[in-house]
Design goal:
Layout: E1 13-14, E2 18-21, H1 28-35, H2 54-61, E3 71-76, E4 79-88, E5 96-103, H3 112-127, E6 132-138, H4 142-150, E7 154-165, E8 168-178
Parallel strand pairs: 5-6
Antiparallel strand pairs: 1-2, 2-3, 3-4, 4-5, 6-8, 7-8
Helix pairs in contact: 1-2
Bound molecules: coenzyme A.
Residues 40, 43-44, 101-103, 108-114, 135, 137, 141-144, 146-147 line the site of coenzyme A.
Length: 187
């Protein structure tokens, strides 16, 4: 099995004005600056808390919240200001991964995440031998849906009332992109 995204401490994916690389203990202060914002977790799962405390940041950087071997920091202007992760499936789903990402609000609306996702996929699809990448987007998050559409993802359907947020139940929109696969069975 190919290496996972954040498991190589020397991984350094240069993009147009940004870098994707593994999270480091020294990212704590920058992480807190960008993550402790009520707008950021609105479209994310409850694993991303608000307020985002120093203890939350330390737990994240210690790998206690998500598997950091499957996550990369987004670095803009020399500091980590967001993250992107690819969680690989297991067994018969090992050719696929779930994509997730967030960016500090200071950088929203400048096309960063569209370019970050493109750079991440350009590297990950061949390096991790992936043939399908999927993402779930909360019904209140059109910006994220747009990022995926601009990266060639297709909307496949809806998980109705799948998530309970503070204001009630929400649908999850399902997006995925597949790559021409040698192993695909034609019917
Ligand atoms: C969603 C998020 C990653 C977008 O990052 P970003 O760098 O601002 O995204 P981009 O600038 O590359 O693209 C955003 C697109 O959404 C569009 N958009 C923004 N707000 C929108 C809205 N309310 N309705 C429709 N489209 C919207 C923008 O116009 C842009 O599309 P365009 O290039 O066609 O004009 C960022 O807002 C974020 O981190 N949010 C919090 C965490 C989160 O929701 N993560 C995703 C979980 S699925």
């Amino acid at each position: 099995m190919a290496e996972e995204a954040g498991s190589d401490p020397g991984l350094f994916l240069a993009g147009d004005g940004f870098v994707l690389r593994p999270w480091r203990p020294g990212d704590l202060d920058a992480l807190l600056r960008h993550a402790d914002d009520p707008q950021v977790p609105r479209g994310l799962s409850d694993r991303f808390p608000h307020p985002y405390t120093r203890a939350d940041g330390e737990a994240f950087l210690a790998g206690k919240v998500v598997d950091l071997s499957q996550a990369l920091a987004i670095e803009i202007a020399g500091e980590a200001c967001g993250g992107i992760g690819l969680r690989r499936g297991t067994g018969e789903r090992a050719h696929s991964a779930e994509l997730g990402y967030w960016l500090g609000r200071a950088h929203w609306g400048h096309g960063w995440m569209t370019r970050v996702v493109a750079r991440c996929l350009d590297w990950a699809v061949p390096a991790l031998e992936l043939e399908r990448i999927a993402a779930e987007v909360l019904d209140t998050n059109p910006a994220s849906a747009r990022v995926l559409a601009k990266n060639g993802f297709v909307e496949e359907g809806l998980r109705r009332s799948a998530v309970r947020k503070a204001d009630g139940l929400h649908d999850l929109r399902l997006f995925a992109r597949v790559w021409p696969a040698t192993g695909r069975v034609e019917r």
